[in-house]
Design goal:
The chain is built from eleven helices and 17 strands. By secondary structure, the protein is α+β, with helices and mostly antiparallel strands.
Length: 399
C-alpha cells in the first residue's frame, strides 16, 4: 500500500511518495546513465522481455531489491513518477509488465510528463500488466495508478487491466493511494471490497489536507511522516490508516520501506533510502551524479548494506515510539533544515545520517516493546525471517 502526492503552485511543483511494501523488502536507490541501444535489442523487465528503445534517458530510482522496475524515480529531463497498487474489476494477467516496470520504462523513454504518460499507456496496451508483485506472497498482484510530473505539469494515470484514464492536475494538491479516483473510471472499475480494506480513502484525505500549505520539501517530508503523534494499530490492518505506515495487522499489513520527495523547481530529489521516514533522514540525490551506497540489500539482515543497518535503529524505535521519538526528532529536523539550505553531496549525507542513527540508537538504549500483542508477534516473525541478530523467537507458528 502506498501514497503519492503532487502540489502545483506559483512557486513550482513538489512531489512526494511513500513506498509501502513487505517489512523485509529492502529497497535500493540507484542511478542508471543514459544509453544508446542496438536495433532490435530487448530489455528484460521483471517477468518478461520487450523491445528496447534506441535511447534511454538517465534515471535515478528507488526499487524493491528483487524487481527490475521501480516504485518511484526521476529522469535527467526533470520528470518524476510514483505508482500505486489499485484493485479493479478487470482480470489480472499471469504475465505482463508490473506497475513498477511501467514506471521505470516511462522514465527511461519520456522527456516530459506528457511523453512519459504516453509511453506507459502504449506499453500497457501492447503488453498488459501482470505477474506477481509481492515478496511474502509471490502471487499477489494488482493494477496500478500513477502520478507523473515535470516542472510544468502533472498527470494522474489510472488503469484497470489494459484500460486507462488520465487527469491533468492544473493547480493545488492531488494525491493518489490504493484506489481509483478519476470520476467515471473509478465508479466503473473499482473493486470496492479490496479498495476499502486498503484504507486508501483515509490516507488520501490526510495527504491532501497536510500538503495543502506545502511550499517546499520540508513540508512534504512532514506529509510522508504523518501518523499522528505515534502510530496506531488496528487488529486486522495494522498502521494502514496513515501515510507513514507501520506493519502489524493480522489480515493486511504494509511497512513504508522507502520515501522520496522532489522539488522540481530546483531539480533536487530527497530520499531516505531506508524504511520509515519518521526514523530516517531525507538525503539529497541528483540524476546527474552517481549514487554508490555500497552492496545491494536483499531480504536478509546484512550489516554491510545501508538499508539493513538502519533497520536496527528503526525497529528499536518502533517498540516504544512515544518514548523514543523525543530523543532524536529535533536533531533530525535540524539536520534536514541545514541540508535544505545547503545540500551536501549524496555520499556525505548518507554517511552523516548513519553516524547520527548510531548515536541515536545508543541514546535510546534498551526499549521495552509496548505495542499491542499482535504487532509484537508480527514483528518477531519478520525479525526471525530476516536473521536479525537480536531477533526473538516467538512461541507462535509462522504465517
Amino acid at each position: 500500500m502506498c501514497d503519492t502526492v503532487v502540489v502545483l503552485s506559483p512557486k513550482g511543483v513538489l512531489f512526494a511518495k511513500n513506498s509501502d511494501r513487505d517489512p523485509n523488502e529492502a529497497q535500493i536507490v540507484e542511478r542508471h546513465p543514459a544509453a544508446d541501444h542496438p536495433p532490435d535489442s530487448l530489455v528484460r523487465a521483471t517477468w518478461m522481455e520487450i523491445p528496447q528503445a534506441r535511447h534511454t534517458h538517465a534515471v535515478i530510482l528507488s526499487r524493491p531489491f528483487w524487481m527490475w522496475g521501480a516504485e518511484m524515480g526521476a529522469n535527467e529531463h526533470g520528470v518524476v513518477a510514483g505508482n500505486e497498487a489499485v484493485f479493479t474489476d478487470q482480470p489480472y494477467e499471469e504475465i505482463g509488465l508490473t506497475g513498477m516496470d511501467l514506471l521505470r520504462l516511462g522514465l527511461e523513454r519520456g522527456r516530459t510528463a506528457t511523453e512519459t504518460v504516453s509511453v506507459i499507456i502504449e506499453l500497457l496496451e501492447r503488453h498488459g500488466q501482470g505477474g506477481g508483485c509481492g515478496l511474502e506472497r509471490p502471487s499477489f498482484t494488482y493494477h496500478n495508478s500513477f502520478i507523473v510530473a515535470d516542472p510544468e505539469q502533472a498527470y494522474v494515470l489510472e488503469t484497470a487491466g489494459r484500460r486507462w484514464a488520465t487527469e491533468e492536475v492544473r493547480t493545488g494538491v492531488r494525491s493518489i493511494s490504493n484506489g481509483l479516483t478519476i470520476p467515471g473510471f473509478a465508479e466503473t472499475h473499482s473493486d470496492r471490497v479490496k479498495t476499502r480494506l486498503s484504507a486508501c480513502r483515509v490516507r488520501r484525505a490526510r495527504t491532501e489536507a497536510s500538503a495543502a500549505e506545502a511550499t517546499g520539501p520540508a513540508e512534504m517530508f512532514s506529509v510522508l511522516r504523518d501518523h499522528g503523534p505515534t502510530p496506531r494499530y488496528r487488529l486486522l490492518t495494522g498502521g494502514m490508516d496513515a501515510p507513514c505506515m507501520h506493519a502489524g495487522g493480522l489480515v493486511a499489513s504494509s511497512q513504508t520501506t522507502a520515501s522520496w520527495v522532489s522539488d522540481l523547481t530546483s531539480g533536487l530529489h530527497w530520499v531516505t533510502g531506508t524504511a520509515a521516514p519518521c526514523t530516517g533522514i531525507f538525503k539529497p540525490v541528483r540524476v546527474t551524479e552517481p549514487v554508490d551506497l555500497g552492496p545491494p540489500p536483499d531480504d536478509r539482515f546484512d550489516p554491510n548494506t545501508v538499508w539493513w543497518r538502519h533497520e536496527r535503529f528503526h525497529r528499536t524505535v518502533m517498540r516504544d515510539p512515544e518514548a523514543a521519538f523525543p530523543r532524536f526528532e529535533a536533531e533530525r529536523d535540524e539536520v534536514e533544515r541545514e541540508w535544505l539550505a545547503d545540500p551536501p553531496p549524496t555520499d556525505e549525507a548518507f554517511e552523516m545520517a548513519e553516524r547520527l542513527a548510531r548515536t541515536w540508537l545508543d541514546r535510546i538504549g534498551q526499549v521495552e516493546d509496548r505495542r499491542p500483542w499482535w504487532v509484537r508477534r508480527y514483528w518477531a516473525i519478520r525479525d526471525r525471517r530476516a536473521g536479525l541478530p537480536d531477533a526473538k523467537r516467538p512461541a507462535v507458528a509462522d504465517r
